[in-house]
Amino acid sequence: MKILLVINPISGDSNKESLISSIKQRTSSKIEIFRTTGKDDIKKIKNLITENELERILVAGGDGTIKLVAEAMEDESIPIGILPLGSANGLASDLNLPLEQEAFIKVALGDKKKQIDAININDQLCLHISDLGLNAELIKEYEQGTFRGKFGYALQTIPTLFNTEGPYDFTIKTNDKTINRKGIMLAIANSKQFGTGAVVNATGEIDDGIFELLLFKKLDIFEVLKTLKKDAQLSPEFLEVIPTKKASIQTLKNVDFQIDGEYCKALKYVEAEILPKKLSVFIS
Ligand SMILES: Nc1ncnc2c1ncn2[C@@H]1O[C@H](COP(=O)(O)OP(=O)(O)OP(=O)(O)O)[C@@H](O)[C@H]1O
């Protein structure tokens, strides 16, 4: 049995080559290394999964890289060891994984695993959190900007807040009802927090078979600051939480949209459905 190590060379700000020797020192298993190129990565990872008998896949990158691997796996369930080396590492924060290199390598090569849900959103896989509106606008600007990492992300915040196209009109259908709401952003959350660490869904669990729709009604700096705390109790005037297994969302005009920190093109209609226990990941 081999280990597949998938490295995203551009994620975050870090050089990941020193990882390889650290991992080799900690395991006697043979390691197959794949460096992503940004082109046909899913197909190439899929081939490596088919050609090799794998005990686990280690992923060095951010949420987007974990997603490439999850998509390449289809119905197989090879456990994933997360080496959180993206700019935000939302999934790793949600799983309380350590962010220090030796510590996260130890967890990724360990035995303790957890099965986590994912969400199918317009036939794309969401592992962590997706949204329509303000945060997606921010990610779009960041991806077009020249600065990477958290610094680049922070730099984009101020112009985006001033130029936002919101508020937006959302028609939200869940199993039992249809509601109309106005808001600056609507998140579809499998996790408790955004990649930046903002806790917006404190009672949400990543393995409970449901996801939460989070409707942010207005920009309120006091409430935003509260999200820095793990047990943040947010005001219902700021945030409405709708737990569900399935939903559709219709908007009046095109709204920017992102999944797991990756900008997708603006749209007016989204369908989301929980995929219970979709992935197996190593935890501490
Ligand atoms: N060699 C590469 N060159 C350009 N893009 C790449 C390369 N490898 C992977 N990618 C792209 O990187 C994205 C995934 O990045 P990921 O979310 O893991 O990191 P990140 O945290 O967003 O890091 P950063 O913000 O620095 O990009 C995917 O869109 C993938 O197609």
Account of the 3D structure:
It is a single chain. The chain is of the alpha+beta class and 284 residues long. The protein has 2 domains: 2-111, Rossmann fold (3-Layer(aba) Sandwich); 124-277, Tumour Suppressor Smad4 (Sandwich). Helix content is 27%, strand content 37%. It contains 8 helices and 14 strands. The strands form 2 sheets. Strands 5, 6, 7, 8, 9, 10, 11, 12, 13 and 14 form a 10-stranded antiparallel sheet that branches. The protein has a 4-stranded parallel sheet with strand order 2-1-3-4, with helices on both faces. Helix 3 links the parallel strand 3 (54-61) and strand 4 (80-84). Helix 2 (41-51) packs across helix 3 (63-73) and helix 6 (134-144) crosses helix 7. The model has no long low-confidence stretch (mean pLDDT 91). The chain binds adenosine-5'-triphosphate. Adenosine-5'-triphosphate (ATP) binds at residues 8-12, 36-38, 41, 61-65, 86-88, 148, 261-262.
| Overall pLDDT confidence | 91
Largest sheet: 10 strands, antiparallel
CATH architecture of the largest domain: Sandwich
Q: How much helix is in the residues?
A: 25-40%
Query: Which residues form runs of ≥5 with pLDDT under 50?
Result: none
Order of helices and strands: EHEHEHEHHEEEHHEEEEHEEE
InterPro entries: ATP-NAD_kinase_N (IPR017438), Diacylglycerol_kinase_cat_dom (IPR001206), Lipid_Phosphate_FormReg (IPR050187), NAD/diacylglycerol_kinase_sf (IPR016064), YegS/DAGK_C (IPR045540)
GO molecular function: kinase activity
Keywords: ATP-binding, Kinase, Nucleotide-binding, Transferase
Protein name: Diacylglycerol kinase family protein
